[in-house]
Amino acid sequence: MRAWNLTKMQDAKPVALYFFDMNKTALFFVALTLSGLTLFVLLALPSSVWANWQPATCLPDGCFCEAENTASPIRQMANTLSSLGYVFSGVWMMRRSSSRLPFLHSVTLGISTIVTGVGSAFYHASLTFIGQFFDILGMFMIAGFMLVYALERIWTLRLKTTIGLYLLLNLSLSWLQFAIPDTRRYVFAILLVIALIFEAYYRRQNAPNITANKLHLGVSLLTLAYIIWILDNTRILCAETSLLQGHALWHLLGAVAVWFLYEYYASEK
């Protein structure tokens, strides 16, 4: 009887891991619930809640095309709603599978993507500096993951070293956001390019069995999204009061691009 009990204990899963064994349908409802809860919290706030917060550096007239609605706690509705596309991508990434991407790495990329979505929603709802910080933080976390994961595979880093490097990189980038906030977009672009260069180097040196087209598709979508971002930010294509916003499309295409990035990593044999 004692041996049977020990076997049962060894085979038992920690309760927390049941979440990661959900199928995609169940995870869709988890993402839907998280997105709905985010919107509920924002809409429950008074419309004047952000008045005394430090404003985002894009104010007064550089916060993309969508007009600021000061009568609502959500200042930019279309940009806020579309941000939650990242939540769906991020939640689905965290399902355990037999892919090459280690489970801890899947969770890290998934959480980074969720932070991007919730942070972006907070930013466009509040147009505050702290919202801006969390918006860019998620983007830094994703690009930082890409760089560190490439370095881990190139140099066969130990997990402890990978975690330390990832944390140090994100702490440094967080400090930069407060010290020199206007550099955040340029730093993100540079970090992303460096990560892609190291990823290309890894593939050239190791010739892994991996579906490179998924990465190419993700980069292509992100490039298209960035063109739309420019057209929206410069107001070349702009309808301030419409729910059809170029920046909202940037969010949705970005969420799909990150999903293809995950699929690329998961395809490695």
Tell me the distance between the termini. 41 Å
CATH level-3 fold name: Rhopdopsin 7-helix transmembrane proteins
| Range of helix content | 55-70%
- CATH hierarchy class name: Mainly Alpha
- Count of domains: 1
- CA-based gyration radius: 20 Å
Given the helix and strand composition, which structural class is it? mainly alpha
CATH architecture: Up-down Bundle
Shape: globular
List low-confidence stretches.
1-13
Strand content: under 5%
Number of helices: 10
**Would you report the number of β strands?**
0
The helix-strand sequence is HHHHHHHHHH
Report the mean per-residue pLDDT as an integer.
Answer: 91
Task: Let me know the largest β-sheet.
Answer: none
Question: In brief, what are we looking at here?
Answer:
This protein has 269 residues and is an all-alpha fold. The chain has 10 helices and no strands. The protein has a single domain (70-266), classed as Rhopdopsin 7-helix transmembrane proteins, CATH 1.20.1070.
Could you characterize what this model shows?
By secondary structure, the protein is mainly alpha-helical. The chain has helices spanning 2-11, 24-43, 77-83, 85-93, 103-126, 129-155, 159-179, 184-206, 212-233, 246-266. The chain has a single domain, classed as Up-down Bundle (Rhopdopsin 7-helix transmembrane proteins). Helix content is 68%, strand content 0%. Mean pLDDT is 91; it is low at 1-13.
